[in-house]
Amino acid sequence: MNKKQQQTLIAIVISLMVVGYIYFSYLIAPLNKNLKVTREKVEKTQKELNNLKIQSRNLPKIKQELADLQQEVAQLEKLLPTDKELPGLLRSITRVAQNYGVKINNISPQGVLDQPNYSEISYRISAQANYHSLANFLAELARGKRILSFRNINYSAYSESTKGLNLTINCDFILVTYVYKG
After folding, report:
1. Strand partners, 150
2. Which of 39, 59, 116, 133 has the least CB density, counted as fewest CB within 10 Å?
3. CA-based nearest residue to 124, from 175, 84, 80
4. What range does the domain containing 74 cover?
5. Domain of 106: which CATH number?
6. How far is CA 8 from CA 5, 22, 159, in A?
7. Are residues 176 and 91 located together in one domain of the fold?
8. Is residue 45 domain-shared with residue 93, that is, in the same domain?
9. Same domain for 15 and 58?
């Protein structure tokens, strides 16, 4: 080979190397990069699909749990109503008092104490009865459909009844009802 042929051969080899480099750098490398990104997206989507399949298998169970929780909330709202329901409360107190022979002398509102999720509504109640009737009256109220509590229960002898040995007592207490703020 003469010198000119060597130079031509070297030029062809260098040209092929440059063309190969350009081909790889501007065509193959971006395609490989896009292929890698696409594979990552496919893997991510496949994982999401598998998670959704697992969740879809659990969907009936989750729906049942939701229905159970909604039913439980409805039952709790009956115990802890969302409004004051004063007329119903007064009817309930009056009915229970009559059943146990308790004479209600006075019911007076004492105010509202707001808590984060509920409010406490207090009523001062003055009543007369014998000891057992009063105890049964308070127990029946506590067993009722609503959540109630009793505070500051004070007993005193009723002076007029001691003559007849009826053993009647006066009782003053605070009845606290609860209202859900939901």
Report:
1. 175
2. 116
3. 175
4. 1-79
5. 3.30.70.60
6. 5, 21, 134
7. yes
8. no
9. yes
Q: In this structure, are residues 127 and 137 in contact, taking their beta carbons and an 8 Å threshold?
A: yes
The pLDDT profile of the chain, 182 residues, written as one tens digit per residue, is 788 888 888 888 888 888 877 777 777 777 778 778 888 998 999 999 888 888 888 888 888 888 988 888 777 766 666 666 677 778 888 898 888 888 888 888 888 888 887 888 888 989 888 888 888 888 888 887 777 888 888 888 766 654 554 557 888 999 888 877 76
Amino acid letter at 128?
Q
Per-residue HEC secondary structure of the chain comes to CCHHHHHHHHHHHHHHHHHHHHHHHHHHHHHHHHHHHHHHHHHHHHHHHHHHHHHHHHHHHHHHHHHHHHHHHHHHHHHCCCCCCHHHHHHHHHHHHHHCCCEEEEEEEEEEEECCCEEEEEEEEEEEEEHHHHHHHHHHHHCCCCCEEEEEEEEEECHHHHCCCCCEEEEEEEEEEEEECC
- Among 29, 64, 79, identify where a domain stops: 79
Cβ-based neighbour number of residue 179 at 10 Å:
19
Domain boundary among 52, 79, 106: 79
